Amino acid sequence: MEVSIIRSSSQAKICKTELGYRDLMFCFGKNNDKNKILSPNLNSVCFESQITRLKKAGLRFTVKAVHSEPILESKSSPRSKSLDRVRLFVGLPFDAVFECNKVNHARAIAAGLKALKLLGVEGVELPVWWGVVENEAMGKYDWSGYLTVAEMVQKAGLKLHVSLCFHASRQPKIPLPKWVLQIGEPQSSIFFTDRSGQHYQECLSLAVDDLAVLNGEPPIQVYQDFCESFKSAFSPFIVSTITGISMGLGPDGELRYPSHHKPAKSGTVTGVGEFQCYDLNMLNLLKQHAEANGNPLWGLGGPHDAPTYDESPNSNNFFKDHGGSWESPYGDFFLSWYSSQLISHGDLLLSLASSIFSDTAVNVYGKVPLMHSWYKTRAHPSDLTAGFYNTASRDGYEAVAEMFARNSCKIILPGMDLSDEHQPPESLSSPESLLAQIRTACRKHGVDVSGQNLASGAPGGFEQIKKNMLGENVLDLFTFQRMGAHFFSPEHFPLFTEFVRSLSQPELHSDDLPVKEEETAESVRMSSDSNIHMQAA
């Protein structure tokens, strides 16, 4: 960057300096800790140390961006071939576009995009919500807010990965389209239902995929119309800016049943979850399957001896390691049917997306969850309730990988920042083992794997991510979740910067080490200011 110092009406260029990102912090979103966020302006860019000394002399200054190589480019440090091949993306905020199709935090996002570009990040991921675009009426689409974001990303020189979200979000609250919820009020069977009759209204039941339940149209047709409208609206950006599209497959966009309606209570171990087969349409499919197999009594409902959401595997008989019903003929019948319905659903949606975007160079992705709790038990109950017939004696992810391969789609696996050593011992969890199992199945079937971290972060997460990037199983891309106040906070952004640098620069230069705490910071506001401003070169 080129720094010019101005006193009175005269201007003298006194220095040029490359300001590393140790000197650049972004204040983004709500300021929850005024003692930690150095700038009072939520959309500001803060330069540390050098500016303070200049202001004491009564000088005002202009910061002008000049040509700078991305930090990732370094000739002095040996590059890891495995890490060098991974494309790095960062997720934009869930509510980047929200009510009235307006861009939230537009100036902060623009500043963040510039920071990521300079840092060497290849692109960003944008969640596109069904409940925002097609909210008012079926077939009435409003892409304006998302088109604005696409333009911002393009101008920043970044690539864009779009996630088509046919589910709802709890935080921030983004529901399904109003007209869908209105249909669901008298027809609750369009939603997943658990054993107690509780409905999950954050996505549609997979049992209605091809049933005419949405104003005379099946959901699969509505999804198709949505995707085709997206393709038409974003045609100027496809391939040139948009390089990948994720097809929403279920809760949180993942291929799974909503086996956990609510997150585990703080300080407690995640339970096994519950089977979601009690809406009328799922029960009808189960009944037909049981009768076709000559056991009509098996089609009356799900396992009667399965635990509830927050209970452990041994709290009832179905998931017990020895003598559990999951190993009985009935258990095999039910689990085979339950998982086959999920895979058929994923196959239907991924084949739809692949067909629509087949005439473009855009890659199609689908997300599979990492149900790692209780993985060290023989039954793997968290896998089973989520819809994966995966046990100690049966590989449930072979069929999933084969389905992705059949549709020429890539798979996204979250939780790549999780390590076994940081899991509660009583959870009998092994995210590393499950991740290795799924990646082995993908490698066998030639399916490219992309990774994500958990948005909430994890102890030792950056090192675990790097570990998962190394080795023979090279990732197609990695998306770091997610841009926001925490991401650009003084506590997190320097760590992320160091992580990005370490992908190609294992050893940091002394100038890149964190600044001393006693050095104060001054804010360079993104707004036009008579004394201080930033302009593009």
Note the overall shape.
Answer: globular
How does the major sheet shape up?
A: 8 strands, parallel, barrel
User: How widely separated are the two ends?
Assistant: 9 Å
Provide the residue-averaged pLDDT: 82
Q: Ranges with pLDDT <50 over ≥5 residues?
A: 1-82, 506-510, 515-537
Strand order of the largest sheet: 6-7-8-11-12-13-14-15
> If you compute it from the alpha carbons, what radius of gyration comes out, rounded to the nearest whole angstrom?
25 Å
Helix fraction by DSSP (H/I, runs of at least 4) = 25-40%
Estimate the strand proportion: 15-25%
Structural class: alpha/beta
Number of strands: 17
What do you see in this structure?
The protein is an alpha/beta fold. It is globular. The protein is built from 14 helices and 17 strands.
Describe the structure concisely.
The protein is α/β, with parallel strands linked by helices. It is 28% helix and 15% strand. The chain is built from 14 helices and 17 strands.
Features:
537 residues, 4-stranded mixed beta sheet, alpha/beta, 8-stranded parallel barrel
Topology (elements, then pairings):
Elements: E1 2-7, E2 10-16, E3 24-26, E4 45-48, H1 50-55, E5 60-64, H2 81-84, E6 87-91, H3 106-119, E7 123-129, H4 130-133, H5 144-155, E8 159-165, H6 178-184, E9 191-193, E10 199-204, H7 219-233, E11 242-247, H8 280-292, H9 329-356, E12 363-367, H10 381-386, H11 398-406, E13 410-413, H12 431-444, E14 449-452, H13 461-469, E15 477-480, H14 493-502, E16 521-524, E17 534-535
Parallel strand pairs: 5-17, 6-7, 6-15, 7-8, 8-11, 11-12, 12-13, 13-14, 14-15
Antiparallel strand pairs: 1-2, 1-5, 3-4, 4-16, 9-10
Helix pairs in contact: 7-9, 9-11, 11-12
